[in-house]
Amino acid sequence: MSARRATAAGLLCGAAVGVAAAALVTGGSAGGAAPATPALPGLPAPAGQGLAIPRPRPLGPQDHVSQWAPVRRPLVARRRPAAGAARVTRLGLRTPEGTRNLVRVLGRRTGADRRVWVHVALAVLPNGSTAWVPRRALGAYEEVTTRLVIDTRTLRATLYDRGRRVFRTRVGIGRAESPTPRGDFYVRNRLERYRSPAYGPLAFGLSARSETLTDWPAGGYVGIHGTDRPDLVPGRISHGCIRLRNADIRRLGRLMPVGTPVRIR
Amino acid sequence: MSADFGLDLAVLDRDGALEEARAGLSRRSFFVGVAAGAGGLLLYRGTDAPAQTAADIDVLNYALVLEYLQAAFYTEAEQAKAIKGRAGEAASTVGAVERAHVKAFLDALGSKAVKRPQFDFQGVTEEPRAFLKTAVAFEDLAVAAYKGEAPKLQTPAIITTALGIHTVEARHAAWMRYLYGIRPAVNAFDEPRTRPEINKIVRETGFVTSTPQTRSSQAPRYTG
């Protein structure tokens, strides 16, 4: 090989390496099409990808996401996000039904003590109470995308999932002397396989409490449940609970998770 | 790992970032699902996917659990909106990538994929310094885990993908280290971590928890 030919070969080789390097540098945009892998002479072709790696997946809209959290340890809920703030109530680990006590998460803030405090909805009287609790007294955040609306005028329950209506039925609500409380609440627990026909096959416990039957056993919590008197639904027939026909409560049971916000209007 | 900076998860667990984490919680064994998935191994071939051996499936499921952990961590941070500025931007970007990794593994494993564990990050996603410290530890842990598992993979195409993810995790580690204020790369050689080591570290954080019991068969005492 002459000196000139050797120089040309060297330049070509260098150019090839340069092109390959450029392809490696410029071809790897995140989420884009896979760059062509440069083949190097003398080396086996690289294996293709074994998994299809999708583009990065940004967090979707959070408009319909609600969070709740279990109480990790007994705590004092306070009016402001500070350890010395006025006490609102004490929260235990369990509900009267023996399930884990939980709160609906409304927001969060770092207090003057530099600790994270969580603004929560409570299952206490007066209905609609909120308070601040230390983040570390709560367990893992859980999410739901459902919300239930009870219309006490039309006697209808409507369940939405990500804003889309997925269930609607007629309901029974409280009589005039024991009205179903209005406001914003959440589902605290789910009971089933019990022997109590008056409650039907399934019952959801709400954070709402009767404002008239305050001496009711276990605190007078309001539930959403089935019935052994379907002939009374729809109507103003209960002690404050929301009654559904049994087929409807079963259907709701397949669609509504614990933690779902409930608006009674 | 980053023990030289006191940033591995075992240290996080000692220095108070994860205080009050453990008491009273019965935690699901972090990798029970992986063990079960590896137990009944059948060759799985997804659409257009290369054949996966039993060893491949085992490693993919193991990696999936780590990706679940990371994706949940960054997602929670982004949702909480408490991490601002460049760290918040990093959380969004890295979270989107980790969710893509999860989807890739789920698609590849199909019905063989292990279920997502329950995670409780105990507030570290809402405190900027604790967030970054944990992010550094997670990314370093993932890098070490991929390195430890790589030799077990048998299908060349899956090795290629695993290496592709491994380098992405290393970039994340460097990014989080930079944001935390430490040098991104100081070692000439990064050590792999074995599976028992990784399992022990993750279990000790208390980040893996059990689903709260919200159902009961007790008769209702609602007002009726």
Description:
The complex is a heterodimer of chains A (265) and B (224). Chain A is 13% helix and 35% strand. With 265 residues, chain A is mostly beta strands. Chain A folds into two domains: 66-143, SH3 type barrels (Roll); 145-264, L,D-transpeptidase catalytic domain-like (Beta Barrel). Chain A starts with a helix and ends with a strand. Chain B has 224 residues and is mainly alpha-helical. Chain B has a single domain (3-16, 26-209), classed as Ferritin. Chain B has helices at 9-14, 32-39, 54-80, 85-109, 128-149, 156-180, 195-205; strands at residues 118-119, 208-209, 215-216. A two-stranded antiparallel ribbon of chain B has the order 1-2. In chain B, α3 (54-80) packs antiparallel against α5 (128-149), α4 packs antiparallel against α6 (156-180) and α5 runs antiparallel to α6 (156-180). Classes of the chains: A mainly beta (265), B mainly alpha (224). At the A-B interface, β4, β12 and β14 of A face α3, α4, β1, α6 and β3 of B. β12 of chain A pairs parallel with β3 (215-216) of chain B, so a sheet runs across the interface.
Strand and helix layout:
The complex is a heterodimer of chains A (265) and B (224).
Chain A: H1 3-26, E1 66-70, E2 75-78, E3 87-91, E4 102-110, E5 116-121, E6 130-134, E7 142-144, E8 146-151, E9 156-161, E10 164-170, E11 172-174, E12 183-192, E13 202-209, E14 221-225, E15 235-238, E16 242-243, H2 246-255, E17 261-264
Parallel strand pairs in A: 8-17, 11-15, 14-16
Antiparallel strand pairs in A: 1-4, 1-7, 2-3, 4-5, 5-6, 8-9, 9-10, 12-13, 12-17, 13-14
Chain B: H1 9-14, H2 32-39, H3 54-80, H4 85-109, E1 118-119, H5 128-149, H6 156-180, H7 195-205, E2 208-209, E3 215-216
Antiparallel strand pairs in B: 1-2
